Amino acid sequence: MDGEIFQLEDEQSVNDGPVTCLGITFENDAARREFFRDELRKKLPELRLIEGFPIGTDDDIIALSDPPYYTACPNPWLNDFVKEWEADKVRLQIEGTRSADFEVTEPYASDVSEGKNNPIYNAHTYHTKVPYPAIIKYLQRYTQPGDIVIDGFCGTGMTGVAAHLCDSDLSSNSKASGHRNCICSDISVISTLISGNYNKSISANKFKAEALDIFNQVYSECSWMYKTKHSDGIYGEIEYVVWSDVFICPTCGKEIVFYEAAYDSSTGVHENFHCPSCNCMLTKRGLPRAKETKYQKPTDTVETIAKSVPVLISYKLSGKTYTKKLDAEDWSVLQMIEDADIPYWFPTAEISDGCKTFEPKRTNGIKYIYQFYTKRNLYILSSLYDKMKDKSYLKIWFTSQLINISKQNRYRPEVSFPYNPLNGTLYIGSLVSEANVFTAYKNKIDKISNAYSLLNRNVNVTCIQSATSLNIQNDTVDYIFIDPPFGANIMYSELNEIWENWLKVTTNPCSEAIISSAQQKGFNEYSTLLAKSMKEYYRVLKPGKWITIEFSNTKASVWNAIQLALQSAGFVVVSVASLDKQQGSYNAVTSTTAVKQDLVVTCYKPTAELTTKFEQTSDPRKNTWDFVEELLLHLPVHLKKDNSTTAVIERSPKILFDRLIAYYVQRGYPVPMDASEFQKRLKERFVERDGMFFTAEQAIEYEEKKKEAPTFVGLFILVSSEAEGIEWLKRKLEEGPKTYSEILPDWMQDLVKPKKGDTLPELMQILDENFLKDENGYWRIPDVNKASELEAVRNKRLLKEFEIYIEAKKIKDARLEALRAGFKECYKNKDFATIVAVGNKLPEELLTTDEVLLRFYDIASSRV
Question: Who's near 524: CB < 8 A, 6+ residues apart?
């Protein structure tokens, strides 16, 4: 930057005339803001009673808010917005941009990995974001212009951004083009601040002018801190300073500057290195750190912290880059900064005791938020923050670089530069790059300005609010898209502490859906919070409408918790697709024991007509086929890949039966029939094509579409469980009767390791219990009547085996199908205590990774 002050190149006037908000007209936007801030202040005592209310004073919450569009707390005007949006639908329908009979009958899947390289996505360095171009496709599929969408785990508000841009050039479907109204909520303070700014009308020019003005003020005040001598009378500007940890040699007791002993500019960090004093060979692991005990004036405490020293300066002069060791003048400047009092506010809060905060506390001795920064960078940051006042659209700029210019920025020029913090952690490396604050923030002005210029259009609503307590009336939302927290993947509230303490309002972790030993939340607590959230989504979604959930976790237990939460809320799962990021395609998921890819789960809320039928009957079994028909009408009719027709796994008898059982069990209805009877009656009522079932109209459509792709590709099954083995054998024997010796080689080839704790029967036992053998030793699939007889005999054997588990003190390994049969029988007999007792004896991994066991156990636990 070489000392220059930056100007706004294209000065344009900002329209600051009358504005209308929720039916009230104001002189200008500032008047609107002040009016609603006063109203919000009056409502805060009542709002504080809502679950998930953030931690902060009334003044700080008001200062961060821009009501009614963004509130740093639950938003009391959500239902007012919904009422206004519903009224506007009438206008849109008259204009012809909406249809009165709009209906979506099939789920949709799209590549969620696309579209990450764009100004909006890259404007802020938040942990996770779903690329909004992918969400646009979902919105255009499931909604029409004017519809109301909610994302209650909104993160940085990409669903709202997608709702904005459904009427932009990014919209690929002109018929579906048009703005959607979106409510974005999250318990995270920093994420909703970002979302709130992305989802309201902000003048890019106004932002740029104000940001540059603040930037220039602080640059004039503090640029001397980055000056370094090049030669006599000539100074360059520091781009970064490398700081090195200092260790103690266990042999000679002398200090070792890590950079000098272990780093080489051409090869990077050496795993093994010599002590410069005694020449003994060392490795960093286990090496004691040198420490310093210093008085901390901001907190008036004496603290012991890990010692680090500056070892290298990189600076620019006339466009060229140079490096040097610190000279006497550089050391003098550092001392001047160290001796200076910072005249501005900065956060002095102590970091929490958490899973991620433990590392900087233990390793580096960092106890307070401000200790994540060098004194120089802390001084400049506090000056920047002081001049932003309560303008939230500037604070998104301020927070955008807080991590990159902290001590978390690792010095790794051979890998990534200039910013390289370790994502998902608060890790501070042994080599830290103290980046130039001015360079970082100058670069972000243009990036955020570009993002604002794309978003200066319709306004959505953002608030801090727990998904377990949505402040929205029943049956008001047209579509839900969420990317919920997944177990222990990311410790959001801990990782957000640096950002949020600068904002003076922090996340209340009580209702954070997470697995965290620090918060004393295990799998059960996580599942409970998730279930409460899904029940809230079910409550606010209109009947017959859709919800899409993106899932990113490799643990089957977490996946099952998601499915159980959805089904216990009342949703019907119709599609689970895995994203093959290398091939850019979706594949049906048939096993959830090892989720290794991103998943997109699609569900619908049953129609009001179906719900009424169940409510008005004394025998829910009479409505079995009403449920199945509605489910079939929500499933894809035909899937095509590489000019071939592919199987829709959700149309298979097994999956249809699983969905039926889930629906009945979660509502406390008796199981209507067994699998054999279901399959028999399914064939009587619906049309079978290629092992899949359709309504009569759907079957005609399927046949027509299959003519264009006549080759049929069935689903490939690997055998990791008894149920999969039975399905595998059915597919094999559909080709024709086979002997055991003909089956065995292929069986062994497709056999994989079962889940931990599951005992998989031998092939011969599975054949004996489920198939028929003729006098020549050929195995074949039994007809429906014989299959019912075999299942009845097999079920008796399984229940006999289940009795062993009832008597056992502890269960290490078990036959999964026996457990399923036993739990189902206990549920039928309302013997919930036995389900819980046996479940408590099972290995946690076996219980939590099986959807059927977990479903029965969860219901039984609530009724014991």
Answer: none
